[in-house]
Every structure is written in C-alpha cells, then in structure tokens.
Amino acid sequence: MEEVEVVVAHSQRATLRVGDVFLKIDGDPAHAAVEVRAMATVPVPTPPVLWHEPPVLAIAAVRGEALGVLGEPSPASPAAWAAAGAAVRKLHDAPLPPWPGTRLDDLAAELDTECAWLLASGVLPAEVVRHNREIAEAALRPWNPVFIHGDLQITHVFVDGDEVTGIIDWSEAAPGDAMFDLATLTLGHEERLDDLLAGYGDDVDREVIRGWWSLRSLTASRWLIEHGFDPDSPGCEFDVLRSRLRDA
C-alpha cells in the first residue's frame, strides 16, 4: 500500500503525493485551470496531467531532483543551471498566453501595502525594509511582457544530471516580466545567476533582477508568516533582505 505524503498544506491549497502521483487540491479552481492550460502550451518539459476534476488536479512525478531548496546550497552543477536557463529562455520566447498578467499599478500598490505591514509589525528593522523598498523601485518599470512561469522557485525546476526533466507548479503562469522569473529562480542563490545566464543569455538587466529579489521578498513575507512558513529561516527571504543592506 502506498503511503500518503503531505508535500505542502495551508489554508489555500494542499499537495499530496501517493507513489508517483501528486494530487493538488486548490480552493480556487482558476489556479488549476491555468496550470493545465499552461502545461499544454509551453515548449519546456512539464509533468503529465493524469486527470483534472475540480478541485483536484492529478499529475505524474517527474524524473530527477529539484535544482535545490531555499536556504541550502544548490547541489546542481553549473551545466544544470545553464540548462535551466536555456529552458526558461524557450518559455520566454513562446507566444504569450491569452489570459492577463499582473498590472504594474497593482504591483506597486501591493509593495506599498506590504512594506507598511512590515514596518508596523516590527518583524524586520525599519532600515532593512526601507533600503529594500528603494532597491525594489528598479523592478517597478514598464516591461515587454513574455510568457512567464510566475512562481519559478528553485524547487520547481527538476534536473537529472545536466538535463531539465520537468518544471512544475504553473498556476501563476501569465504574461509578465522576464526578469521576475530569473530573479525568483535565483532568490537566495544569487551566486548561481551567472550559471543560469550562461544558458539563458546575458541580455538581462541585473539591476532589475536585484530589484525583484527585494520586491519578491518584501511582498511574500506576510503571506509566508500567516500560512505557517518562516521567512526568517537561514537563507530565506529575511536573509535576502538583510544581505541587501550589508552589501550597501
């Protein structure tokens, strides 16, 4: 009999693993709908969809291991990171999805709201919040939209040796800023950016990527805290924010 493993669980969604099958249960059926549409469209390896009966989406496991986890050094080779970069480039060169992405005005408003919460809560020194808010300004500019994954965490890219075998969790896929995907994948692993760009190409704006490192960490922290995660774990979001001040 297969054991049931809880991969992630919070008030919005849960993912269970039973053998080689992942069952994703989401309170918002739109998330799974986007995920299914995106995986059927993108020119990169994705998990096979086994069935979809809202609110449950069943997908098959992909071969290999994740590039790494937040808070620990990535065990993947430079060539594996370059392969990941090449896959992300294929995604960004694909035709745009037909559904809308995040508006710049909404993003700026969210940043203001979350920085105000961080300052009022005192979970981080005010100097850290304000300094990163200034850095985040670099990301708040008009961009030419591309097909982005939208949540390209290091745990969502799987490799076997130097081959990308699958990219998972597509519920946030949408038109958006290419630099956001690159920043999300290297969040907490900034030392691997050059390896990633060896496959992606160097036509990037590193200042904007740094802006997204700060912006994502600022805007994600309250959600993480309220859903049982710890952004203050070693190498995670709070460390990313503190490191920006140390580098100043």
From TrEMBL:
InterPro entries: AGP_Transferase (IPR051678), Aminoglycoside_PTrfase (IPR002575), Kinase-like_dom_sf (IPR011009). It comes from the Bacteria. This is Phosphotransferase family enzyme. Pfam families: APH. Residues 34-209 form the Aminoglycoside phosphotransferase domain. It comes from Pseudosporangium ferrugineum. SUPFAM superfamilies: Protein kinase-like (PK-like). The keyword NAD does not apply. The keyword Protease does not apply. One of its GO terms (molecular function) is transferase activity. Keywords: Transferase.
